[in-house]
């Protein structure tokens, strides 16, 4: 019986090739998108689950309670030692400090090659907490001795051209000779670790003294502390016990610390501590569901419309003895065959577009990730669900056809499924598309607002160049003078970072003038020389710039500092004292600058001060003439390399750095564009299929209308009016849904665009235009045809 169902289904599908192709292509796009979304979700949901005791591994994090609550994925440097020695909650505790862009000199084949790597300085117990296996299969990883390192096989191949490198050495930062004591297997794709070179923690003091000290005075995001808890520990009980630590070690601080334990499984999905927003996964899953739903709606609409033309076939089958269940399973078989072809084509489409998908979301997914039982279970599930959902309703309708009416040709379209059902489904389809288009438009507006709005400083044609940390002040001045003489360089400034840099953001406590207590709020430190304002185009609103000096005696503050203090006039801040960073900054306020964004638009502008300190510079900012960019950059690189012969020259444009702040939003936008386009494409395929039926049904009517004098425009309007009415209904349904979703998304932004009615009207008009284009070809073909041919149509 089943074989007979499949054979008849195949014949019916071949008989109606166009509609079969439309159904297969629509479902294939839905299936292909679902496969890519499955890969995306399974990739993110499998992060760091491979460790032996992943459920017992926690990262120590801090809530900083001031006027606002800040969340830091770190703890003070002294926390690890105290937690290890004074408490009995963990088997192992270890710190990791990340340092980016360190130089490694490797001798190979008689020459020295230079590599720039992100380094992790780790305590010995780090590899007892995490299970990153060695290449030789042993479990002993020793980093207890200074000047030792463990690297991954990926790095070993890149630097040495082999993996058997135990005992080999490299020179770190042109100074320390480091010996390799172990080689790890290539790190899994699904791990929080981005570093592939691990050096003994005993070497940290040479590169990052603050993180190496046993201090409770502050927090750096470079440092992370991990613990492998003993079995059956109560995390809430531990966190309660840790409430006593700040009282003991930071009793006078207005910055109240609350230390928390973050599970390893939460690290990848907690945006408060730099993880991925779980909402992105939900958005992916919902969009995948939308695409499959739209494809199923297409199938149901076309199938129910097609039932009218198959009524005689069904009538004859019933007369010859077929039961309702036979007809139902016959149609379900046809649906299964179409779905099977569609899922095969969808898999092929997914593989074709996988590289582009990887590039879009910065992933490393492979077709090999599909070779597991879970994936095949997923395929079987969506194949069964789509076949059942798409085929059940048309199958039930066909099995209910009255054979007498069918054979006499007295069936109407309402008898084979009805226009009402199709209209409801088309409205749902249009509503989904309108929602996606409106969301895409609003997200795009918010990103444009963030990237192109005046940030309070000049980011165009600004080049940021890193400099070695051990550079002497005299060398800095010499380099600045040489760079300023290059044609095309307009301004040069030495600084810790740019005004709006995501990296090197440095917050500290602050005391204003004669106030005896530190303020409740934190202040951002922007370290730059006397050319900082001119180079970045930050305007003064009161006072003057500070003079060149070897020590911090004068500072500038922004308007937000006065606003936090409740000082209404910027001039009233001039001449007042500012104490910050535990007293290392104790200077007079000589100027007030206008506010500038020092982070992305999700956060409000914070109080900030600008001061000069030769010992804290790590970058040189250059304002260049964009007319001769390449030539100017070449000369900058030559001058830099002549000064630092042992280092690698690298530069970044500031506008690129600013754009990086909105990488997540850019991915949301790309996601919306891609899947909105797919939703519209699937919808257009369905519309094209429906219009084929409607035009075929009303061919004779069109001929009569033309004979009676109807114009082509009138006939085109006849077909489009009904669809436009459905689009307006869909727009009325989609607008409040899209408005609510986008309003919730924009709640995360302190500085945001407003949602206006015309944004949704634009989405509705866009769908109308796409619909008009989709149905115009078939409609116009019949409208301009000879009416005699139309009147001869049976």
UniProtKB/TrEMBL annotation:
<protein>
    <recommendedName>
        <fullName>ABC transporter permease</fullName>
    </recommendedName>
</protein>
<feature type="domain" description="MacB-like periplasmic core">
    <location>
        <begin position="431"/>
        <end position="601"/>
    </location>
</feature>
<dbReference type="GO" id="GO:0022857">
    <property type="term" value="F:transmembrane transporter activity"/>
</dbReference>
<dbReference type="InterPro" id="IPR003838">
    <property type="entry name" value="ABC3_permease_C"/>
</dbReference>
<feature type="transmembrane region" description="Helical">
    <location>
        <begin position="375"/>
        <end position="403"/>
    </location>
</feature>
<feature type="transmembrane region" description="Helical">
    <location>
        <begin position="424"/>
        <end position="443"/>
    </location>
</feature>
<feature type="domain" description="ABC3 transporter permease C-terminal">
    <location>
        <begin position="286"/>
        <end position="401"/>
    </location>
</feature>
<dbReference type="Pfam" id="PF02687">
    <property type="entry name" value="FtsX"/>
</dbReference>
<dbReference type="InterPro" id="IPR050250">
    <property type="entry name" value="Macrolide_Exporter_MacB"/>
</dbReference>
<keyword id="KW-1003">Cell membrane</keyword>
<feature type="transmembrane region" description="Helical">
    <location>
        <begin position="327"/>
        <end position="355"/>
    </location>
</feature>
<keyword id="KW-1133">Transmembrane helix</keyword>
<keyword id="KW-0812">Transmembrane</keyword>
<dbReference type="GO" id="GO:0005886">
    <property type="term" value="C:plasma membrane"/>
</dbReference>
<feature type="transmembrane region" description="Helical">
    <location>
        <begin position="707"/>
        <end position="735"/>
    </location>
</feature>
<keyword id="KW-0472">Membrane</keyword>
<dbReference type="Pfam" id="PF12704">
    <property type="entry name" value="MacB_PCD"/>
</dbReference>
<feature type="transmembrane region" description="Helical">
    <location>
        <begin position="21"/>
        <end position="41"/>
    </location>
</feature>
<feature type="transmembrane region" description="Helical">
    <location>
        <begin position="279"/>
        <end position="302"/>
    </location>
</feature>
<feature type="transmembrane region" description="Helical">
    <location>
        <begin position="674"/>
        <end position="695"/>
    </location>
</feature>
<feature type="domain" description="MacB-like periplasmic core">
    <location>
        <begin position="20"/>
        <end position="238"/>
    </location>
</feature>
<feature type="transmembrane region" description="Helical">
    <location>
        <begin position="755"/>
        <end position="775"/>
    </location>
</feature>
<dbReference type="InterPro" id="IPR025857">
    <property type="entry name" value="MacB_PCD"/>
</dbReference>
<feature type="domain" description="ABC3 transporter permease C-terminal">
    <location>
        <begin position="674"/>
        <end position="787"/>
    </location>
</feature>
């Amino acid at each position: 019986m089943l074989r007979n169902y499949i054979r008849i289904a195949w014949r019916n599908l071949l008989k109606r090739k166009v509609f079969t192709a439309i159904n297969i292509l629509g479902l294939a796009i839905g299936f292909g998108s679902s496969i890519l979304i499955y890969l995306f979700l399974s990739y993110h949901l499998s992060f760091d689950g491979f460790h032996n005791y992943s459920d017992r591994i926690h990262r120590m994090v801090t809530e900083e309670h001031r006027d606002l609550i800040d969340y830091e994925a770190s703890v003070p440097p002294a926390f690890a030692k105290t937690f290890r020695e004074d408490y009995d909650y963990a088997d192992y505790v270890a710190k990791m400090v990340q340092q980016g862009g360190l130089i490694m000199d490797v001798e190979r084949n008689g020459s020295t090659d230079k590599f720039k790597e992100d380094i992790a300085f780790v305590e010995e117990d780090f590899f007892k907490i995490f299970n990153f296996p060695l290449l030789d299969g042993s479990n002993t990883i020793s980093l207890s001795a200074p000047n030792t390192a463990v690297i991954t096989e990926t790095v070993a191949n890149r630097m040495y051209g082999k993996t058997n490198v135990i005992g080999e050495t490299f020179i770190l930062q042109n100074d320390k000779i480091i010996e390799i004591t172990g080689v790890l297997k290539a790190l899994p794709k699904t791990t929080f670790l981005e570093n592939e070179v691990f050096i003994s923690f005993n070497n940290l003091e040479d590169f990052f003294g603050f993180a190496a000290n046993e201090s409770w005075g502050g927090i750096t995001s470079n440092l992370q502390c991990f613990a492998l808890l003993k079995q059956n520990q109560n995390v809430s009980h531990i966190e309660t016990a840790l409430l006593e630590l700040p009282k003991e070690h930071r009793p006078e601080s207005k910055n109240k610390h609350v230390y928390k334990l973050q599970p390893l499984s939460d690290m990848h999905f907690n945006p408060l501590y730099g993880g991925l927003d779980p909402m992105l996964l939900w958005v992916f899953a919902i969009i995948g569901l939308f695409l499959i739903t739209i494809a199923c709606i297409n199938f149901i609409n076309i199938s129910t419309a097609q039932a009218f033309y198959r009524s005689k076939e069904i009538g004859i089958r019933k007369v010859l003895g077929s039961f309702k269940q036979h007809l139902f399973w016959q149609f379900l078989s046809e649906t299964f065959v179409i779905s099977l072809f569609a899922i095969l084509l969808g898999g092929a489409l997914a593989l074709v577009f996988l590289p582009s998908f990887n590039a879009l979301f910065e992933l490393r997914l492979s077709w090999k990730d599909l070779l597991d039982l879970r994936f095949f279970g997923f395929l079987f599930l969506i194949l069964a669900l789509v076949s059942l959902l798409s085929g059940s309703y048309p199958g039930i309708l066909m099995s209910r056809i009255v054979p007498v009416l069918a054979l006499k040709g007295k069936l109407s379209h309402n008898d084979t499924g009805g226009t009402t059902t199709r209209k409801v489904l088309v409205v749902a389809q249009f509503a989904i598309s309108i929602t996606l288009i409106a969301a895409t438009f609003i997200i795009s507006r918010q990103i444009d607002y963030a990237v192109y709005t005046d940030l309070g400083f000049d980011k165009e044609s600004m080049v940021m160049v890193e400099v070695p940390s051990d550079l002497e002040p005299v060398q800095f001045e010499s380099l600045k003078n040489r760079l300023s003489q290059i044609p095309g360089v307009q301004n040069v400034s030495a600084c810790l970072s740019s005004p709006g840099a995501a990296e090197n953001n440095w917050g500290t406590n602050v005391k204003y003038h004669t106030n005896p207590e530190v303020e409740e709020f934190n202040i951002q430190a922007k370290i730059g020389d006397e050319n900082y304002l001119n180079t970045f185009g930050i305007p003064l609103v009161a006072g003057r710039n500070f003079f060149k000096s070897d020590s911090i005696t004068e500072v500038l503050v922004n308007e937000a500092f006065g606003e936090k203090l409740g000082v209404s006039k910027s001039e009233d801040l001039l001449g007042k004292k500012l104490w910050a960073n535990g007293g290392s900054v104790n200077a007079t306020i000589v100027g007030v600058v206008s506010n500038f964004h020092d982070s992305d638009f999700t956060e409000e502008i914070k109080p900030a001060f600008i001061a000069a300190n030769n010992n804290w510079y790590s970058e040189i900012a250059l304002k260049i003439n964009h007319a001769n960019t390449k030539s100017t950059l070449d000369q900058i690189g030559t001058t830099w390399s002549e000064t630092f012969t042992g280092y690698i020259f690298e530069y970044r444009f500031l506008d690129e750095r600013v754009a990086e702040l909105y990488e997540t939003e850019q991915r949301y936008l790309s996601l919306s564009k891609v899947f909105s386009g797919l939703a519209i494409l699937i919808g257009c395929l369905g519309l094209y299929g429906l219009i084929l039926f409607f035009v075929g049904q009303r061919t004779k009517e069109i001929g009569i209308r033309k004979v009676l004098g109807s114009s082509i425009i009138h006939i085109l309007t006849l077909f489009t009016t009904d669809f436009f009415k459905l689009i307006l209904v869909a727009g009325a349904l989609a607008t409040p849904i899209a408005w609510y979703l986008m309003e919730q998304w924009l709640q995360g932004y302190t500085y945001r665009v407003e949602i206006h009615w015309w944004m949704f009207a634009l989405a509705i008009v866009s769908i109308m235009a796409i619909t008009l284009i989709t149905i115009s070809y078939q409609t116009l073909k019949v409208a301009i045809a000879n009416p005699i041919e139309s009147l001869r149509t049976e």
